[in-house]
Amino acid sequence: MSMPCGAKKFFAAICFGFLIILCQTLTARALETETDDAALMQQLYSDSGADRLEGALPDYAAGLLDDLGLDGFYPGGVDNVTLGSITAVLRGVISENLREPLRVLCCLVGIVILSAALDAVKSGGAADGALTVVSTLCAVSIIAPPILELTGDLAGTIEASSDFMLLYVPVISGLMIASGSAAGGSMYCGVMVFVAAAVTRITSQLVLPLLKCVMSLSVVASSCEKVRFDGVVELFRKAARFILTFCMSLFVAFLTMRSIVSAAADSLANRAVKFAVSSFVPLVGGALSDAYQTVISCVTVLKSGVGAAAIAAVFVIFVPVAVRCALWQAVTSVGAALCGLFDLGRVSSLLSSLSSVVSVVLAVLLCTMVIYIISTAIVIIVGG
């Protein structure tokens, strides 16, 4: 039995009214989302786990991060970081760590001057060998402990930075996936978790034992007249630098290539989603597409802010130990030059070997820091 014509018109009017109300409600929600981006970003910031990243930093790094002007990892805080704040942090770190190297350098200068004075009045014979051994042992007792402590600082810094990256990588990968970079986020998470774990394992089980072995052999060789260890130490230094440079270049090239390919795939997928929502959702497809783009834009801004803050965090984790390495390398280099000037061959050889050890420690630190910083910068820039 067919409905009367008036009933059909009444039913159609009711359905049309419901559709108008639904369309206005969805459009109002989309407009409300556009005008409330700050609240949305704050909610995304908390849900992503980025608010817990600062707790993963060592105490000294958190203090330096505050000195830079960063209060947490929320977007916008990076605007407070200026060249003046960076310079102030570096100046503070240098002044804090300068006293001990200067004290050791003064002691080395005293040993050199005293050895030169005794060498001028020596009577020859067995006194020559005794004087050389005594001066060498004095230099070893002064310079070896802080250099050994520096290798321990290397292990602690690598472990702290790896722990931070293992917490940061899932956060930034989740933000990348939420911003439409599903392929890039998954790739970055897998690569960086492997790199952080590998760096910690290689440093603790390979680099540190080799550095301690080289230090021990350098000390032993400096006390033995017929053993010269300079060539072996120089070979170790060159090999370490070559391996580090090669690994860093290979990693950066691989990550850049994969990021570019992943970004192209993610861009195509995002355009397909926006087209599907806009074209196949009746009446409100355009509003939903705009709301989707608003959320994507907020997540992208949040991802860039968290990534930039993470770069600053990695910098403050490494900079104190890197500054100490630079200061101790300057001390050993100046000491070796003074010993060469006064013809103290064994002490000069010892200090040159220790300077090479410090240079390897500094190279490992800088390469690890550059890998973490460049990898973060690549996924932020290429991912959009």
Helices and strands in order:
Elements: H1 5-35, H2 37-48, H3 59-68, H4 83-97, H5 99-121, H6 126-178, H7 182-223, H8 230-280, H9 285-341, H10 345-383
Helix pairs in contact: 1-9, 2-9, 3-9, 4-9, 5-6, 5-9, 6-7, 6-9, 6-10, 7-8, 7-10, 8-9, 8-10, 9-10
Notes on the protein architecture:
By secondary structure, the chain is mostly helical. 87% of the residues lie in helices and 0% in strands. It contains ten helices and no strands. The protein has helices at residues 5-35, 37-48, 59-68, 83-97, 99-121, 126-178, 182-223, 230-280, 285-341, 345-383. α7 (182-223) runs antiparallel to α8. The longest helix is centred in the last third of the chain and has 57 residues, at 285-341. The radius of gyration is 31 Å and the shape is elongated. The model is unreliable at 7-35 (pLDDT under 50).
Strand content: under 5%
Shape: elongated
Low-confidence stretches: 7-35
Order of H and E elements: HHHHHHHHHH
Key terms:
single chain; 384 residues; mainly alpha; 0% strand
Question: How is this structure best summarized?
Answer:
The protein has 384 residues and is mainly α. It contains 10 helices and no strands.
